[in-house]
Amino acid sequence: MTEEEYIAEQIRRNVIITTIDKIYNWGRRSSVWPMGFGLACCAFEMICAAASRFDFARFGMEMMRPTPRQADLMIVAGTVTNKMAPQVVRLYDQMPEPKYVLAMGACAISGGPFKDTYNVVNGIDTYLPVDVYVPGCPPRPEALIEGFIKLHQKIEGQTIITSPWYRKGVEREVPVPALGPRGLVIPGEEDE
Amino acid sequence: MSREVYARLVEEFPGSSLEYLEGKEPAISVKANDLFGVARHLKEKEGYDYLSAVTGVDYPDRFEVVYHLYSMKERKGPLTLKVSASKEEPEIPSVTPIWSGANFQEREVYDLMGIRFAGHPKLTRILLWEGYEGHPLRKGFPIEGYKSMGQEEPS
Question: Rounded CA gap, A173 and B97, in Å?
Fold first, then answer.
């Protein structure tokens, strides 16, 4: 084998040609780190999904991050009360782009059994852009993992060209609701 | 057991409004004016050193606060103490100076029932936020809260 043939062979074996999107999304979806917080009973199913039997580290969700600055995915696991909603929205605002929200369980999706009561938000999608809904009361860990796989599919379908988070001048911050005398109000949108 | 305590209480507080309520769970009813003295007597002389629960009840004609007392030293209890409060201006004396465990529980009763506790060190809302209108566990409170401005103002 001549030297040129040898180099050609090495290039053939070691160089892979692909698109930026494919490798970028592969990297992103293989390392989605969720934020470690739970609001109610759904949190236990989430913890169970993280523990050894279900072990969502298999899907690259290596660990729960205790700070929003290092998290890519917010799992809203449980009932969002009016008193808690401002903090949840603030945590979302503190996460770096690109970021995703997974609404876990009936309460986070719609308010669940507590819908239309005086201190419960009728679904976190009132305030946050939700990417994946995982129904159940609470959903089993398998259902949550199915939600993660759906999120992976969504990430793989995105492209860097149209992704909103690298564009200039796009307002991505979500307004934090404030506690009013009759429930939550979004600042600047108070009705008379 | 509550009956013997009641008998001793009547001896100790003659002319007061004590009343023995028969039932599956016997209770001692007391007027708000006498509550603090009776409570202090129960702790210091009868050994009821542990206040397990402070509960608010909304009856059609009155509010009622129920205290469940236990004795850790003598392993006895519960002794149930009931105090009524008026519907218009519910206010009863606080027992926080006697059992400091009453602090948060009285704040919760105040938050959700609107019963004021005179002499409480810091009577503010504990579960809901300051500035919230109304007291949600009252029977007249709409389940979805006072959402629209057309609804009647909370009392």
Answer: 48
pLDDT, one tens digit per residue, over A148-174 is 999 999 999 998 888 888 787 777 788
Cβ separation B129–A183 shorter than 8 A: no
Domain segments of chain A as ranges: 3-161
Distance of CA A174 to the CA centre of its chain: 15
C-alpha B8: how far from chain center: 22
Instruction: Quote the distance between the C-alpha of residue A138 and its chain's center.
Output: 18
Domains of chain B: residue spans and CATH: 2-93 (3.30.460.80)
The DSSP secondary-structure symbol of A186 reads -
Are residues B136 and A181, on separate chains, in Cβ contact within 8 Å? no
Report chain A residues whose CB lies below 8 A from the CB of B147.
Answer: 182-183
Q: Domain A3-161: give its CATH code.
A: 3.40.50.12280
Could you report the predicted ipTM of this complex, rounded to two decimals? 0.76
Task: Tell me the pairing of strands B116-118 and B91-93.
Answer: parallel
